[in-house]
Amino acid sequence: MQTPFTIEPKNSDGFDCFAFHGNIDALAETQMKELPRRIRQPLVKFDFRNTGRINSMGIALLLRCLKTIKEENKPQIRLIQVSPMNAMLFKMTGLLLLAELDGAQPERPARGGN
Amino acid sequence: MHTSRTVLALFKSADDETLCNPLMTGIPGIIRLRAGDNAVASLENLKRVGIEPSLSIVSGRLYPGERPDLVAALRRLFPATEVLLLASAADPFPPLQPLAADLVRHLAISPAAPGSQGSREAKCQFLAAIKKLVEGRPWKMADHLRPGTPVQAHNVSSSAQKEELIALIEALIAGDSAEIELLRQRGALLADELLENALYDAPQREDGSKIYRKGEERSIAPQERIVFRFGFDGEILAMEIADGWGSLSPDLVLKHLAGNQHGPEMADDAGGRGLFIIWRIMDQFHVNITPGRRTVVGGHLKAASPLDLDAPRGFHISTHF
Q1: Predicted ipTM?
Q2: Which of B217, B268, B305 to mutate to test the interface with A (most CBs of A within 10 A)?
Q3: For residue B222, pLDDT beyond 90
């Protein structure tokens, strides 16, 4: 059975941090839509260490979310613990025009399908 | 099916022709033309002597940059000709907007280093592609697998099968190396995109609007007939999906690929992002369309292919009636 997508806020000083768990696809829509409202700090980090597969719908949701965050709050956005596969996807689809890749990248992403 | 089997190849210059030559030898009866400043006049001369090419191979050093009008001239003089753009891996990747505007449905990449093992494989694939185009035969994913490789075929009856089918592909790609792990990840994403395309993008009303929303749980009606095929021969992963809608068109595929090619104004709702991702990940990507009846989207990917966004990729989009 597929692991449900969840967004976990992580306590941090001076910046917002949210970890994504599971695959990011159409089923993540509701949570991704609500995420911009949770941004408070001038720097926000999104942790992809436990993210599984991100498909084109997931990319669309991420793009929409990051654009909204930029428009409403104008914070700096950093993407951390991004696998090489997802980094390629982000570059291919323009996501890195809205956010920076930051930090060490895990070799193998979390398996969101079990 | 074309009645003529004449193949025409258009080069920018003698140097350009020399570079393309390793791929061209082996094409029977090919007519070679160095286009230069008198390209259209040369084509008109061919027309006058009764030559009607079923396939026109155009060098990427000529079109779209140097002679953006060339394909339009070809189509005016030889309306039945199929056009294949041959771009070199040594050159910047061509922009796809002109190809979309001119409906250039075939793009092949010639290797930067002639004489390498990769270039010998490229030549075999290129000649096989030329043969298919001249004979009017569709691309099939099993063409790229070692003979005798088992191919799994699954009838998709529900959207709930998606994760199960992806898990089957992941299990098929056995091994612990970094290369194999990356192939598993790419294979899983490809399968995800192919399945979502057939489940949610293919079903359309008469006005072209989508019937189902992405992520919606749905059953597949018997007449939809979605069949997902895949195989792995230890080096190459090949897969394709066929749906019974036939709602894609070559024009739309090209628009999606071209529209997603350049990032800066990337809309979050850009159509065809899934097809674009499939194309950029696969080593070779094909779409066979029988309008209103069937669409097949597929291709293959080698385990050894690097994760390289800048690596040029070809495509073949064909229509069968």
Answers
A1: 0.90
A2: B268
A3: no
